[in-house]
Specification:
Blueprint (H helix, E strand, L loop, with lengths): L34 H19 L6 H12 L1
Length: 72
């Protein structure tokens, strides 16, 4: 913020005059996770990244097709 105006520190591809909703988040807290929940989230993210790096993934379209077939 500078002089009551939001200053972006990264370029954006928003069109001129675009309306953007700004949500203020109090202090350093970005969510409602406690320390244990945050640790579990970070562990799950690290596991997912490792699986992706190893090529141990399934295409999203394949998963959706499987789920649709089960729902029929």
């Amino acid at each position: 913020m500078r002089n009551g105006r939001l200053i972006l520190d990264e370029p954006t591809e928003l069109p001129e005059g675009a309306v953007v909703d700004l949500v203020a988040i109090g202090g350093d807290k970005l969510d409602e996770l406690d320390d244990d929940e945050r640790e579990a989230l970070h562990a799950a993210l690290a596991e997912g990244i490792a699986q992706d790096d190893a090529g141990d993934t399934v295409d999203a379209e394949e998963v959706l097709a499987h789920l649709r077939a089960r729902a029929s």
